[in-house]
Each structure stands twice: as C-alpha cells, then as structure tokens.
Amino acid sequence: MRKKIELAVLLLFLAILVLLSKNLQKLVSSGNVTAKNKIIVLDSGHGGDDPGKIGVNQAKEKDVNLEIARKIKKRLEKKGWEVVMTREKDEMLGDPQAGNKKIHDMKARVEIINKTMPQAAVSIHQNSYQDEQIRGAQVFYYSHSEEGKRMAEQMQKALLTMDETNTRQAKANDTYYLLKRTEVPTIIVECGFLSNPEEAAKLTDTKYQKKMADAITKGIIACVEN
C-alpha cells in the first residue's frame, strides 16, 4: 500500500513538472516582454566631427537625430521601458585618436547594442537626395533578418500618421554596418529628407519633432509587444 502511495505521489510530481515545462515554453516562445528585458537602445546617428546630412536650411542631421531620440527616450521611459542611448551629446564614439574615426564610431555603437542585448535597437537618421522634391520617412532593416523585417514594417505603418500620402515601404538592406553587425533586431528610421525644404523646416521644428517621437514610440511598442 505504501509503495502504491509513493508511486502515485511520484507520478503526480512528474505530471506537475511536465505541465510547468510546457507553460514555460509557451511563455518563452510567445515573446512576451517581462520587466527584466524591457530595454530599448536608441542610436542617434552621426555626431561630433560627423555632422551627417546638411539640410537646405543648414540644419545638421546629427542635431536633429539627437533631439528626436531624446524625445523618444522620455516617452518610452514613461511607459516603463529602460532606454540606453548610444550617445547623449554631440560627439563621435570610439577612439578620438583613431585613424578612421567613422569606423571606430560605428564599431562602438554596435558594441553598445550587443553588450546591452535589448529587445530591439532603433537608429534615428535623416535622409537627403539631389532632387529636392523627394520626401517621406522610410525604415530600413537587414535583408537577412525576418524579425527586423517585421519590425520595419510595423514602424513604417506607425510613420503613416505623420504623412498619409507617404507611399514608401520598409526596405531591406545588406550593406549598412549597423544592421549587419548587431545581434538583436535593429532598424534604421529615416525620419524625412533634409534636402526637401518643407520637410527640413518640419524636422527642425520642436512640435513636429514631438509628433515624430510619438509616432516612433508607438511603432517601437507595436514592434516589441505584439
């Protein structure tokens, strides 16, 4: 009788372990965001000696990138996210004495992202083109990343709130260093064209930057929580 009871207890214990194991697998596979991994890395493109694109209104891309990233950071933090910025001031990253500062800068950005291992990394940039009529926000992702593609498409939808006439689609890329070298889903958000007079004026306007930050924040949350 005693052996039967012990066997029954053992079987019950094993059944509980199997059930717990299945539930744990469901939790992990569902990609649910927990308090421990609610981390986003925001990368403000360029900085310091690297101004990025120069707008028709003489605005420097590096400054616009940082202003928008700061606003996104505030919004994400209010929603309970931890935000790591690759830069929080006007500077290039990496060794300032390096022969090729740009390469060291990009490597430093990738290192920050890979060491942090966030849910996702979002790099903020501004675009430019020789034709001043070209306009519209666009999102880029690594061509070999399915998760990156999904994120970019979600973000592109979120950016439609800024301009419903924008017909641009999320675009794959296999050459951008940041997209190729990061170990987590990473996208690059080109907020608009500094070469377009109308967009250049908007992108340097605080109110418009706040609206852009709102849209990108919503896009980030849609990307990582769905």
What is the end-to-end distance?
52 Å
The biggest beta sheet, please?
6 strands, mixed
Q: What is the ordering of alpha helices and beta strands?
A: HEHEHEEHEHEHH
Number of helices: 7
Strand content: 15-25%
Report the radius of gyration as a whole number of Å. 22 Å
Keywords: Hydrolase
Pfam families: Amidase_3 (PF01520)
Protein name: N-acetylmuramoyl-L-alanine amidase
GO cellular component, one term: outer membrane-bounded periplasmic space
What does this 3D model show about the protein?
By secondary structure, the protein is of the alpha/beta class. It folds into two domains: 32 residues; 192 residues, 3-Layer(aba) Sandwich (Aminopeptidase), CATH 3.40.630.40. Helices cover 48% and strands 15% of the residues. It is built from seven helices and six strands. It has a six-stranded mixed beta sheet, with helices on both faces. Strand 1, helix 2 and strand 2 form a beta-alpha-beta unit. Helix 2 crosses helix 7.
